[in-house]
C-alpha cells in the first residue's frame, strides 16, 4: 500500500501468538536502532568539539540505543498484546497505523 501511494504508513507491527502462549511483536522499525543512529550522529558532533570523535560516537550510539529502547511510539504495545492474546497459537495479526489514506473508486 505504501509503495503504490495508497497509504502513508506510520507504524506496522505483526503480533504472533507463539506455541508456548507468549505474544511476540515484530515491528516495522526498531526504535533502538533509530535511537542509536541519531545518538551516534550527535555524539560524533559533540566529540568533534572536544577532539575525541570516536568516544563521542560510541557514547552517543549507546545512549541513543537505550533511549530508543525505552521509548514507545506509534501503536501501543499493551493494546497489541491484549488483542493478540485472543489468537490461537501459531496465528498472527497485523496492526497498521496510517497517517494518510487515499481512497480509490
Mean pLDDT: 79
Query: What percentage of residues falls in helices of 4 or more residues?
Result: 40-55%
**What is the molecular shape?**
elongated
Reading the helices and strands in chain order gives EEHHHE
Describe the protein in words.
- The protein is built from three helices and three strands.
- With 105 residues, the chain is α+β, with helices and mostly antiparallel strands.
- The protein has a three-stranded antiparallel β-sheet, covered by helices on one side.
- The two termini are 15 Å apart.
Topology:
Elements: E1 7-17, E2 23-27, H1 31-49, H2 53-70, H3 77-84, E3 92-101
Antiparallel strand pairs: 1-2, 1-3
Helix pairs in contact: 1-2
Structural key phrases:
alpha+beta; 105 residues; 3 strands
Brief synopsis:
The protein has 105 residues and is of the alpha+beta class.
Amino acid at each position: 500500500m505504501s509503495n503504490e501511494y495508497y497509504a502513508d504508513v506510520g507504524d506496522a507491527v505483526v503480533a504472533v501468538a507463539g506455541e508456548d502462549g507468549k505474544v511476540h511483536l515484530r515491528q516495522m522499525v526498531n526504535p533502538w536502532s533509530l535511537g542509536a543512529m541519531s545518538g551516534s550522529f550527535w555524539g560524533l558532533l559533540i566529540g568533534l568539539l572536544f577532539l575525541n570523535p570516536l568516544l563521542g560516537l560510541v557514547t552517543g550510539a549507546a545512549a541513543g540505543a537505550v533511549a530508543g529502547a525505552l521509548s514507545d511510539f506509534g501503536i501501543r504495545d499493551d493494546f497489541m498484546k491484549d488483542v493478540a492474546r485472543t489468537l490461537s497459537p501459531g496465528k498472527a495479526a497485523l496492526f497498521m497505523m496510517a497517517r494518510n489514506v487515499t481512497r480509490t473508486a
